[in-house]
Amino acid sequence: MKTLGDTLKCAREEKDLILRKVAAEVDIDQSLISKFEKNERKPTMEQIIRLAKFYDLSERELIINWYSEKIAEELKYTESTSEILKVAEEKINYYKAQENGK
């Protein structure tokens, strides 16, 4: 399974780009992009969108990867993760139904 950092690094290497070039094009600090690639820091949603556009990657897939890593990091030492995720999905559906009913 590829991490978000792996995906970003592979995309950069496939285009044969150096960090400095990417940083200049997407207006994100070079050291920050390096930390994203090493999974030492998580990009913001805005940065994810910029990187997806620059690398011509699926924005949807990167966002799914980003959210799933945030959730996995939060729950990795928690018991009953499957139940927590199921209840969270039910709550999301409830909230959406409430918004659509307004």
From TrEMBL:
Pfam families: HTH_3. Residues 8-62 form the HTH cro/C1-type domain. It comes from the Bacteria. Signal peptide: none annotated. This is Helix-turn-helix domain-containing protein. It comes from Mariniflexile aquimaris.
